[in-house]
Specification:
Blueprint: H1 3-13, H2 19-22, H3 26-33, H4 47-55, E1 62-66, H5 69-75, E2 93-94, H6 99-104, H7 107-121, E3 126-130, H8 132-136, H9 141-152, E4 156-159, H10 168-182, E5 196-202, H11 209-219, E6 222-228, H12 233-237, E7 244-247, H13 250-264, E8 268-270, H14 276-292, H15 298-318, H16 322-325, E9 329-333, H17 338-348, E10 352-357, H18 363-372, E11 378-380, H19 385-395, E12 399-402, H20 407-412, E13 417-419, H21 430-445, H22 449-453
Parallel strand pairs: 1-2, 1-3, 3-4, 5-6, 5-7, 7-8, 9-10, 9-12, 10-11, 12-13
Helix pairs in contact: 1-10, 4-10, 7-9, 10-13, 14-15, 15-21, 17-18
């Protein structure tokens, strides 16, 4: 690891805005930062993977992976982040280094790759990702990117997050640091308004941002930049002119929100778009922040009128489902902001959450979960598949909501399952998303296949 990267990693891990660090002394934070990773600590995603996840939703830039082709193959299209315009981000670019590059260095190959991308695609910018192999052989991607930017007159952004420096969450923050160092503040919008906001940590999975944006548009609130779902390079570059910000996933991008508040006086809050009540609360907080920043006070009244209308519409559309879901027991195995936000959404429709995962949750997330769930509910931190299967049986859950990797445990337990993670094909954010979530849970719970699979086979009777 280069000295500069080591300093950056130390800075990110000492992030004062992180809930886990707020209760520690300076000495304890530094001690935690020097703790060596054990084998398997990056299972489920390395730092490179985390940086790619955080930045790939920028839709009009070229994402070039400087490393073996396997790194690009592992990370390409790993989330269903949708775009309303350019699809360049769906094209996988890699330098595909081989044995000779390891011996002689891959910097010239990287420079030629940047040149080829600019000539063929002419993107507004190129993001270059460092990987384990190229970091270990000492390729200086920052110097190459600087030289290429000067030569071709395009921003070429180095993302120095090789996989071996840590896990996926660290990579998320290192990706955010690249935006802070090289992108944010480098351009100016054509105009600004008192209603300009940023949304940070929202990736437009399955088009979830598009469930929220029409509501903001109706209120006259302009989404100056979403970092990074359905984002354009220029939007992120001038995002420093926003009046307020909402942070959706603190685990991933707290460093962006905090530093933008320090540098550009953009206040932020952490909120959720999942569930009727949380959606309404987020709209209120956005409007409240904008008013405190100088927007007309009548925005608050218009926000309340919109909330009243949308809540009534959502509950009307869900009234045929809520009696069927009342008191159904659900096990939620996800992480991050969804570990508490989806709990609240499920409880709103009368479901009983018997357990939720806290593996990728902050200390604040865990405290919210404790306040929401019953005393006998399980807070799952990190369980083996065997332990999780036992929990499914012991909790007598009616359905499990999780990511694709744990669906087979539910199927083995002959239990309905619904995908709640990033690979899903439905948008669950906002009022429309809540109606869709309830609809999909109902379809899964009452699918007649479960009655069939639970009937003993003739040779078992």
């Amino acid at each position: 690891m280069s000295a500069k990267l080591a300093v950056k990693v130390q800075e990110v891990l000492n992030e004062p805005g992180c809930d886990a660090n707020q209760g520690k002394s300076e000495k304890e934070r530094k001690k935690g930062c020097t703790k060596q990773l054990v084998p398997g600590a990056a299972a489920g995603g390395c730092a490179f993977d985390g940086a790619k996840i955080a930045l790939q939703p920028l839709t009009d830039v070229a994402h070039l992976v400087h490393g073996p082709i396997a790194c690009e193959g592992n990370s390409w299209d790993n989330r269903s982040a949708n775009s309303s315009g350019s699809t360049l981000y769906r094209t996988g670019f890699t330098t595909d280094i081989g044995e000779l590059d390891v011996i002689y260095g891959g910097e010239k190959r990287l420079y030629r790759s940047i040149k080829e991308i600019i000539e063929k695609y002419d993107p507004p910018a190129i993001f270059v990702y460092q990987t384990c192999v190229t970091a270990l052989i000492g390729d200086d991607i920052e110097a190459v990117c600087k030289a290429a930017a000067q030569k071709f007159g395009k921003p070429v952004i180095p993302v120095d997050a090789p996989g071996f420096v840590g896990n996926k969450n660290l990579g998320n923050k290192l990706g955010g640091e690249a935006l802070l160092d090289y992108v944010i503040g480098t351009a100016e919008p054509e105009y600004t308004t008192p209603y300009d906001i940023n949304i940070i940590g929202e990736y437009n999975l399955s088009g979830e941002l598009w469930q929220i944006k029409p509501l903001l548009d109706e209120l006259g609130i302009r989404l100056l930049a979403c970092i990074s779902g359905d984002a354009k390079y220029k939007e992120v570059a001038y995002s420093h002119r926003a009046k307020a910000a909402m942070m959706v996933c603190s685990k991933a991008m707290i460093n962006i929100a905090r530093k933008m508040e320090e540098r550009y006086n953009i206040p932020y809050f952490e909120g959720s778009f999942y569930g009727v009540s949380d959606m309404s609360d987020s709209l209120r907080q956005i409007s409240g922040l904008l008013v405190r920043q100088g927007a007309p006070a009548e925005l608050l009244d218009r926000t309340e009128a919109l909330i009243k209308r949308e809540e009534a519409r959502a509950w009307e559309r869900m009234k045929s489902y809520t009696p069927r879901l009342q008191d159904k027991r659900v096990l939620l195995i996800t992480g991050g902001v969804k570990s508490w936000s989806v709990v609240a959404a499920l409880q709103e429709v009368g479901m009983d959450v018997v357990g939720t995962s806290t593996k990728k949750s902050t200390v604040e997330d865990k405290e919210k979960i404790k306040g929401m769930m019953a005393d006998d509910a399980h807070a799952v931190d990190d369980m083996t598949p065997r332990e999780l299967y036992k929990l499914l049986k012991d909790s007598r859950a009616d359905i499990m909501l999780s990511g694709g990797r744990s669906q087979f445990l539910a199927l083995k337990a002959k239990m309905p399952w619904l995908d709640i993670n990033q690979e899903r094909h439905y948008a669950y954010a906002g009022y429309e998303g809540m109606v869709e979530l309830v609809k999909q849970i109902d379809k899964s719970l009452y699918n007649p296949v479960w009655q069939q699979v639970r009937i003993p086979a003739p040779w078992e009777v």
